[in-house]
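Hi Y.,

Following your request, here is the sequence exactly as I used it, all 235 residues.
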Amino acid sequence: MIKEALQYIIMNFTSETKNIEGQIYSTQPLHAVRQATPEPLQVRNLSGLVDYIIHNYDEQPAVLIQVSSPTEVNVYSTFNRDMIRNHLLKASALLPSIPFERFLDLEHFNILLQSCFVPNEHRQTLLAIVGNVKDEHVTTFGDDGIAQQVTAKTGVATVAPVVVPNPVFLKPFRTFVEIVQPESQFVFRMQKGPTAALFEADGGAWKLTAIDSIRAYLSDRLQDQIKGGRVTIIA
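Below is the corresponding structure, written out as tokens. Let me know if you'd prefer a different format.
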């Protein structure tokens, strides 16, 4: 009985490899034992990422920094034995929610401009218009069918038709606060109510500007680590 049991074990649990016409086969099914990989450390700004790299907390001989988007930067080590990169850190920008392409009443639109956009000339122009509208009627005029005007307060006691500017160039908070927010083009529209909305009109070019600014920021603050070959940045 014992002899038969040993023979059964040898026949059914001993693995061999065979080369058949250049292809390697196993006589038993095999399952890979995966190497454990860490969960990435989460931070909300670029300065946290820089501190992590400078202090080399996890004692990594070299790391790769990937600027994935205007709102996300990742830090990786090299491949492990399973040819998977260890994801060491993820920086995700903490940003306000800006409702583009949605018409808002002028009170909420005014608050949005003041709280979610960097001050510039066009922001001030829009604030002056939406803060002084005196009539709910919005008219479209001109041969192109694009230009708009509203009745707004233009002096201490006077009102007059005011042309709504288009396009406008604004700097909403859309990337990490450590870098200059990219300015981009928007279409500003108003409707009866009155309500107002902003529509992005640069084809996403601001994203490339933001990514390049993030790379420049990191390159400046990690220049010693880059020169020493411990950090590589791709974007």
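DSSP finds six helices and 15 strands in the chain.

Thanks again,
Q.
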